[in-house]
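1st attempt posting a full record on here, be nice pls
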Amino acid sequence: MAIGAAILSSLCCIVPVLAIIAGTSGFASTISWLEPFRSFLVIIAILVLGFSWFQKLRPRKEVQCECETNEKPRFIQSKTFLGIVTVFAISMLLFPNYAHVFYTKVEKEITRSDSFNIQTASIPIEGMTCTGCEAHISYEVDKLPGIIRSTVSYSNGSAVIEFDSTETNISEIEAAIKATGYKVAHKR
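the predicted structure (as tokens):
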């Protein structure tokens, strides 16, 4: 249960990485609905792991029994197995903090353009919670032709995109952001 909760809590960052590896990055947006439950799932994972360790480490009461119980527990019932599960669960809980390392830098050929064709747009984005979200959006936007630089910040809730207006436009950039599962917040 702890592994399940740990994986579910970071699924919003795991699926985009797996989708990009598989070449189906559009699939990643189907998991974004789990993000609001992340805190709850993290707490469940920690509580289950804590309870499991408590059960494993608490002193056992001696029972007067004539039977022989010197059996070694199965591997799945051992402290070693619980340790492996704990390390895996913690690495899944922390995945959003290091997910950005799985996104490759998009290599693009930048052609020299007139400086009056270069535009900078600041686009507010809703739903980002970690550096993995930043990397996912930046990866998709950088694939567009004419993108010179993209700086995405989950803490600011925005992306600052520098682009050549003869090759792309704000509508295409917003469509690329929406394809990742995040919402472009239009100012009212």
